[in-house]
Amino acid sequence: MTTETSSPAEELVTKVLLAGVGASEISNVYLGHTLGLYRTLADIGPASSIELAEASGCDERYVREWLQAQAVTGFVAVEGTDPATASFTLAEGGREVFVDELSPFYLAPLSQAIAGVGAVLERLAAAFRTGEGVPYSAYPGGVSAQAALNRPAFANELIPAWLPAIPGLTERLDGGARVADFGCGSGWSSVELAKAYPKITVSGYDADAASIAAARANAQAAGVSGRVTFHEHDLAQPVQGSYDVIFLFECVHDFGYPQKVLSTARGALAGGGAVIVMDEATDETLVSPTDDPVQRFFANVSPLWCLPQGRDKPDMDPVGTVMRPSQLQALATASGFGSSRILDIEHPFFRFYQLNA
């Protein structure tokens, strides 16, 4: 712990130690998420380590050690002081955070994304020396983790909160707009749009083949595949047709050619149409240091995830996770949009923009 007399080195040591604690805790979340320990405990708890091991199909000794770590961290509540005989339950709120895939608080897949980063760290170190990228496909579990992290926001906020806050947009969608979802990933945004507005058609575009395959399966399962089509397509190249509304949900900062993608959107925009961009709610300028965990996450995930994934080819120039409003608006102007504005939608992680011809 730091005190008023702590040296700079001591204070820095504390920061690094706390980062190590966080890394070990998120690694244990990965185990609980991947092995189904959280879900099983939520279903059968209270449970001893023996009972949880039997129900989950895992080794009791490992489960006991994991439960002890979870209890010390506060992710699991415990009755008793001996891990071998104690009774464990998920902490209050644990089902929402670790189990319920549609909960707005669901964050267990973050551990899957962090594990994916760990798997490519050596390749990232090599990329730092060569300047090459590390493709999205190289990150184990990257597609499913990113889809799972974004899905709750699309399921809980897109239709009731975000879209009604954009003047004139819901009326256009109610009337049967032609909609494009650029950078659609696994398609959850497209699915929610089609479910909410039965008159629209949605065309989803993404360059990642695994994401498009998942999107098609998700649309089929949701019963909207007749009005939602997905295309494996490099958005640096033009698309066929024109659209009344084009969405880019949390993807502009990832693109290797962000200006070309926005130019594609500008070229595909029908008269009177609008482009809606959702991207990270970054600070407007560099703040150093900061205690804001959201800004710290954006800054640290960029060299690990977004920047290397966007440098797949030598001439790519992604913005990275920390895309400030001035950068997005400069890209919009360079791409031929006549106006861009920040929309009045408050969110701790996302900022919304409207681009018009």
From TrEMBL:
Domain Methyltransferase: 174-286
Annotated keywords: Methyltransferase, Transferase
Keyword Methyltransferase among record annotations: yes
Single GO term (MF): methyltransferase activity
Positions of the S-adenosylmethionine-dependent methyltransferase Rv2258c-like winged HTH domain: 30-79
Transmembrane segments: none
Protein name in the entry: SAM-dependent methyltransferase
Species of the source: Rhizocola hellebori
